[in-house]
Amino acid sequence: MTAPETVDTPFVHLRLHSEFSVVDGTLRVDDAAKAAAKDGQVALAITDLANLFGGVKFYGECRKKGVQPILGADCWVEPDAPDRPPSRLLLLVQDRTGYLNLSELLSRAWLLNVQRNQACLKLEWLAELNAGLICLSGAQHGTVGQALAQGDTVRARESARQLAALFPGRFYLELQRAGLPGQEALVQATVPLAAELQLPVVATHPIQFLAEEDFDAHEARVCVAEGETLANPKRIKRFLPSQHFKTQAAMRKLFADIPTAIANTVEIARRCSLTLVLGKPQLPNFPTPLLDDGTPMPMEQYFRELSFAGLEERLALLYPDAAKRDAERPRYVERLEFELGTIIKMGFPGYFLIVSDFIRWAKQNGCPVGPGRGSGAGSLVAYALKITDLDPLRYNLLFERFLNPERVSMPDFDIDFCQGNRDRVIEYVKEKYGRPAVSQIATFGTMAAKAALRDIGRVLGMGYGHVDSIAKLIPAPPGKTVTLATLPPDFDPEKAKLIYARHEAPELNEREAADEEVAELLKLAARVEGMVRNIGMHAGGVLIAPGKITDFCPMYQQPGSTSAVSQYDKDDVEAIGLVKFDFLGLATLTILELAKEFIVKRHAGQENFAFETIPLDDRAVYQLFSAGRTEAVFQFESRGMQGMLRDAKPSRLEDLIALNALYRPGPMDLIPTFVARKHGKEVVEYPHPLTEPVLSETYGIMVYQEQVMQTAQVLGGYSLGGADMLRRAMGKKKAEEMAMHREIFRKGAAEKGISQDKADEVFDLMEKFAGYGFNKSHAAAYSLLAYHTAWIKVHFTAEFFAANMTIEMDDTDKLKVLMEDAKTFGIEFQFPCVNKGVYRFEPINDRLINYGLGAIKGTGRGAIESIVAVRDAGGPFLSFYDFCLRVDRKSVNKRVVEALIKAGAFDSLNPHRASLLASVARGYTHAETTEANADQGGLFDFGDSHASSTAEPDLVEAPEWSIKERLGHEKTAIGYYLSGHLFDQSATEVRRMVKRAIADLVDSREPVSIAGIVSDLRIINGQRGRVGIFKLDDKTDVIESVANEELLNANKELLAEDELIIAQGKVQNDRFSGGLRFNVQAVWSLAAARARFGRHVLVRSLGGADKLAALVREFPAREVATDEGTTRQGLTLRVPVRVEPGAAGVGAQWLMDLGEHSRLWPADEALARLAVLGDAAEVVFDAG
Known about the structure:
Helices cover 43% and strands 15% of the residues. The chain contains 46 helices and 30 strands.
């Protein structure tokens, strides 16, 4: 057929790898849909490599652009012989049946048959699940193409017939002319085979990217996935620049000689007609109890019965007095009936029953559950069903904020579980509903700007330091998306939704202009940023399907993992109809459960301890909050939060709820007003008298979204459902919608006699607060959890700290903070000890905690539990060698023993840590020898020879560690100093130079000198260059200190972790922390401080003059630049001269200065050697 006859033949792309192919492909689904629409293509297929990750997003984008979406996948097929590679087939979905079959096929491949990281289909699966699918042969990657490329026409014919039989009337031989090696020869071989077998052919183009100029970025992306570099000459290059999105005209031209191949693309598109039902949630069936006649109880009936029974249990707890309970019941029943009616009408009883069921199971099986999270705490039904633990009527929480009767949307409970037990609850759900019905959810990790720079820098072969210097210029504001893109012409930083790195860091443009390599790096990184880089798992989302997950979407399992996830992300699984349940892990619950275990174990009468029965009006607890002593108290532990608490002095749970809601950007500005009104220093004013019942608990300030809704109700005549719609509209800031609501509000206010001006004033106020007002239900639930945490801290302090430190065992920074805080509460610690310690931190009495051996680095749970088991079975260890002999040396290896020694865990057996550390090998050798002798005992056992041969040897002799050495080893093992403080090493001498302790510092304009140990040093890039921020600790207290770039550069070795420094500077109040800050102006080492502030070195005797001279030459005085010029710094030597009393009984003693020739630099080593030479050596700082 001639070319003119094909001019108007439409073409449809049936092969496309998008960014969701992960290992290759850079085409974004929205760009693909736009390109198809622009070219007038009637349909477009997505066929990512062995997945449907982007299926729903692609479907939506195509529908928006008026292009028919075709879903499919480029699938690996298991080879029919071990020596052959996997082949590929293209499967396209025709209808709902085909969609379900493709979902099942892809799921089986990823879950059951991953070979060399390739999820392969089996031919028998295709025989079972081919209905509703069109199959394309895979061109050069398919079995037919592979055989033809090898000249094996017989095998090609067999494969084609086999696939044609599997897909009767739905199998096409695929032709490609993308310019890849061997493609044209394959076309010439395939067409005759198709004619011979009477099989249709179809033209495809293997699209990998949008435009030809995107090839370089695509190659870089492939290299990122493969761990390759672009310049590697051995890299296999599988793609060409021609693999971009071609127009219909270009494809018609390519296949002008085979017009049917073009026409068949449209024929296939016509045969594919899949409609996805989006936005209709499909709840799983909850099994209800059987009635007397053997039929299941209707779900609505069971839901009502369970809710009313639960309400009675709750009322009994809330109102122990029966008369009071009867008086209160009607308002609870009225609210319950309203909620039940709404939930049943919306069709969600099953959702509540499912959530209630797994929460009940968790609570009954030792898995702590949070009191609530999010707006769900506003539901009385949830409270009755034990889903939440906060009475919504007591705290004025709104059901409509959770489930609006006027807007049908899925309820969404976020449930907090103890981190250690969350997986047990998920396992229960899998068992109850069937594993095929339960899955977790995929997340698509994307290349953020900074990560894209680093990835592309690597594939370009650039040096790490070079790339790192550019990556560090990229800002990383939390919660904001940063882009490397060039600034748009009308760029306005105030209105921009993205953070433009080039605007925030102009140096990027300078580096780009000056360096071609940097320009290429930025160009490629900008093109790949935001693309899917890897597949992960949603932190808490769990899907429960009615039937199987694969009835909705395919499943995916990371090679090497055992947890399957959906192939759609959380937005797409909800769109496709699956219901998501959030199982979130919260460490606070684990801490509270462990504290409860300690309380029950150690305190008589606490066997039935329960957080639900804790009184919420405990004065001591509110005193703790008011004093800001809330380290490790959930939600209130930050320094800023502690300062706010000290100002606000909360006295009831409502105050905690309000402060929790206020402490965030925006409403934080209202905290001073809240505090002033609470303490009567400012008059409480209301926007309108009618709002007093709504706003009185927050002193006239709108803090919560619920208060916005209630204000609309009392002033504007809204129902609470309508008020929730108003709140949402205010959040979206749509002008037309807001104008409509303003009129409704005005009308409702007018009916209550409120003027339009006043109505507008209140409406504007509501609009402002709706933007940053907080969800009260969430704040209330989390404040209750905070109260529980604080209550434990006040009443069971040892249990509180033991539980916290056990959970934070791997975070030594946190352990150090907790230990310091514990000491302020009068808690002491029993140091690590192999004869007393266990794995966890455990309370011994109300004021003493046994230090957890598991917190010692390099030990591990197995080793510690093995030691404890041996000790429990055979009694305390009698000596170091007894320990080595009795423990299981496979579980407790030498490194574990060394770590225990460094931590001081053997001090009770022998405090000489240096000798113990040197004796570890000897201890293990002795143990092995003793065991070997014991095995041979009895053969030649005469007299005491055996006993003498196994007598404990001496420890290896080693010099005692100095305080600094001992504490250094201790810090290696524990992460901080436990038995002492580094300052102790030089404290006596330092206090002769620096009298003032850090604990005594006050805000002062005059420079002061302080001394301490440097810790937590971090360098930041400030407006005036680099700034060093560190803590200075002299054992009396710690102060945050700041050193500028000049000081940092001049004192690199000195301003380092664990170094002792003497510093001069100004002490100022730190507005951010509420404490003091030390601005360093000068800094000295101990030796430099001796040289600057000392008078001389006093030695008792001269010793050898030649040795003394050699010492002075080895440690000469130093030339130091000062404001007055260069000066020679060091200390001269003085020696006492004594004349014994003569006959007259008169003697004399004086100090003789040895002059400038004796001036030396007073380093520690110099003084130590001088002490040996001169009998003793002491730096003198005063006239004495």
